[in-house]
Design a protein that fits this description.
Blueprint: E1 8-10, E2 17-19, H1 20-23, H2 27-35, H3 42-57, E3 77-81, E4 92-93, E5 108-109, H4 114-126, E6 133-137, H5 143-146, H6 152-163, E7 167-170, E8 173-175, H7 179-198, E9 204-207, H8 229-239, E10 245-249, H9 256-261, E11 268-275, E12 302-307, H10 313-331, E13 335-340, H11 357-374, E14 379-383, H12 391-404, H13 422-439
Parallel strand pairs: 3-6, 3-9, 9-14, 10-11, 10-13, 11-12, 13-14
Antiparallel strand pairs: 1-2, 4-5, 7-8
Bound molecules: zinc ion.
Zinc ion (ZN) binds near residues 251, 252, 253, 384 and 385.
């Protein structure tokens, strides 16, 4: 999705307003100011510390090394996939605009291109995690199945756009020839993965799908998304007898579509940890702030955790520990849907967060442990964003290692070294916690 980073974090807790711009400097420079003497040129200091940080944050093993070889007997992750999803062509242009300004010799691929998913596929097939993966083929969703989340009018609009050869539905979101079939496959593949878990055929299923879905609202495409794959799966779980479903979305952008779909329901707790990007136009009117809490019966069942830019491994784990775990403990879901995007990584063109493989691995362990405690281990993982073609695949590998709860990492991090401004993240998370404990009915006294 489009990058419209807001530098202002508005927290309504006790009228506390924190302006991030007044607190933060670019992390690398801030790091240098602490670590360096005053004697060297700032740029030189930065370069030296980038190298120093690289050594400090990297795993000791060389790039590409495999850290463990013999798999121990653990339940595999059931991965659902269909190659037809590669046929969604998003074109080239200036970033995600589809625009050729005429003065650039090289137009880049749209960030949501098939290469990113090809690498996710191949790392699971040929990476060290491959012995722990069981493969399943997805199938396209049928139009009536889509109506559990989307309106008939909206689906008709998509069918009509496909019939007419394509349409830009909103900024950066192109339905081209082949896109509709891919979208139906993404939705159907996610439903197959959820059904697999609901039927007791496996505990952990991962829907490796594109186009992504968590911005798609019941009546509106948004942020590269047409159909809300995770939302459809949540509704299938409810329709199959699950009383309560928790959604934990760690894509770097607000999972506004999923939140919107269940905004008036107390059967679905939607939790989103995201960059504090705010609204980005008519297709995305929600701003992802802490005070978007749900409505009616659903009041208090939408938890937004807008994290300051630069939040990394320690900040995310702090937010999971202080906010997500207590909420899930209290909500006691029968099913957990983990909505994942590797665009929260330190190297993503579409995000400004600093997660590394270690952070994704640790979050995976936390989510796995929540599932073990509350859902009998049942967990659906749904792929969303993640636009660095290489690092997204590595981070996916790490997060699934975490979900498998393997005792040691299988794959070292080839590039992680960014420092993290932990203090500011902790301050913001504490403010969110105070606000939510005062406001969300089911969290009172937690
Ligand atoms: Zn995203």
């Amino acid at each position: 999705m489009p990058l419209l980073a807001s530098h202002e974090i508005l927290l309504l807790s006790s009228c506390l307003i924190i302006h991030s711009s007044s607190h933060r400097t670019p992390t690398s420079v801030a790091y240098c100011s602490v670590e360096c003497s005053l004697s060297c040129h700032p740029h030189q200091r930065h370069r030296e510390h980038s190298r120093k940080n690289r050594r400090r944050f990297q795993n000791p093993l060389p790039s590409n090394s495999i850290m463990a070889t013999s798999p121990t007997p653990v339940d595999p992750i059931d991965v659902f996939w269909h190659e037809g999803m590669l046929k969604h062509e998003t074109g080239t242009g200036v970033f995600d605009s589809g625009m050729d300004p005429g003065f650039l010799d090289v137009l880049e691929k749209h960030p949501e291109n098939s290469d990113r998913v090809k690498n996710m596929l191949s790392i699971l097939k040929r990476g060290p995690i491959s012995p722990y993966i069981s493969w399943h083929s997805g199938t396209p969703a049928l139009v009536p199945q889509l109506l559990s989340f989307h309106t008939q009018e909206y689906i008709n609009e998509l069918i009509e756009a496909d019939r007419n050869g394509g349409k830009m539905l909103c900024t950066g979101t192109f339905l081209n020839p082949g896109s509709w079939d891919a979208a139906l496959l993404a939705a159907g593949t996610t439903l197959s993965a959820m059904k697999h878990v609901l039927d007791g055929c496996g505990k952990i299923a991962y829907a490796l799908v594109r186009p992504p879905g968590h911005h798609a609202q019941p009546t509106q495409a948004d942020g590269y998304c047409f159909l809300n794959n995770a939302g459809l799966a949540v509704q299938l779980a409810l329709d199959s007898g699950c009383q309560k479903v928790a959604v934990v979305d760690i894509d770097v952008h607000y999972g506004n579509g999923t939140a919107e779909g269940f905004y008036r329901s107390n059967k679905v707790l939607t939790i989103s940890l995201h960059m504090n990007h705010g609204t980005w136009g008519p297709s995305h009117p929600q701003n992802g702030s802490v005070d978007e809490l749900g409505e009616g019966e659903g009041f208090g069942y939408n938890m937004n955790i807008p994290l300051p830019n630069g939040t990394g491994d320690r900040g995310y784990v702090y937010a999971m520990t202080e906010l997500v775990i207590p909420a899930i403990e209290k909500f006691e879901p029968n099913m957990i849907v983990w909505v994942v995007g590797q665009d929260s990584s330190a190297f993503d063109p579409n995000g400004r967060q600093c997660l590394t493989m270690n952070g994704y691995r640790e979050i995976g362990q936390i989510v796995r442990s929540l599932a073990s405690r509350h859902t009998g281990g049942r967990l659906l993982i749904v792929q969303e964003g993640g636009y660095n073609v290489t690092y997204s695949a590595y981070c996916l590998h790490a997060m699934l290692e975490g979900a498998l709860n393997l005792s040691c990492p299988l794959l070292s991090d080839p590039i992680a070294y960014y420092p993290e401004d932990e203090a500011f993240s902790v301050k913001v998370i504490e403010s969110i916690k105070q606000y939510q404990q005062d406001t969300l009915p089911f969290l009172k006294g937690a």
